Input
Amino acid sequence: MISEQTRTRIAGARDSFPRRRQAILPSLYAIQEEVGHLSEEGVDVIAEILDLHPNDVFQVASYYSLVHTEEWGKFLIEVCVNLPCALRGADALADYVGERLGLEHGEDGHAATTADGVFTYRPTIECLAACSGAPMLQVNQRYFENLTKEKVDQILDGLRSLAARYPDRQVPALEIGKVVHATERGQL
Ligand code: FES
Output
């Protein structure tokens, strides 16, 4: 059941854009943040609030790789391995993340999820527009930059603690942002 809070957020997006269709993308993210993926119910709720056909919503969803209909882990980890990041050691870091999670990764961007359902891992070949902080990765769209293996360890440990605090629901984006700041300050 999609919460009132998420419904209000979608209605707010609808009211802040000149065209209802412009609110589809933020609405998709709102559903995904609550449910963990884009559910059928989520598509219907967006369509109802934006007064669109569900197919209109799904067409936009199918265009963006950050919107997914499969159930993934609480955290989607993506390592950028595009050229500027690759020149600063992204490939080795991508391997290291996979090793720490016990997951293989392929260059086709294939996603794999840990048995406990906490992490889904999908290295990406696309630049995430944070080249000045290379090498970098993103977790549920929060950026971690200037990575080292030590920082990867801190990030994964921080995220595991968060997963334990939110066993039955998605981890709020704000909490992941706190892990970003703590990692940058060396406070984890
Ligand atoms: S190449 Fe990795 S963020 Fe641009």
Summary: The pocket of FE2/S2 (inorganic) cluster is lined by residues 80, 82, 84-85, 127-131, 134, 136 (CB under 6 Å). The chain has eight helices and five strands. The first helix runs from residue 4 to 16.
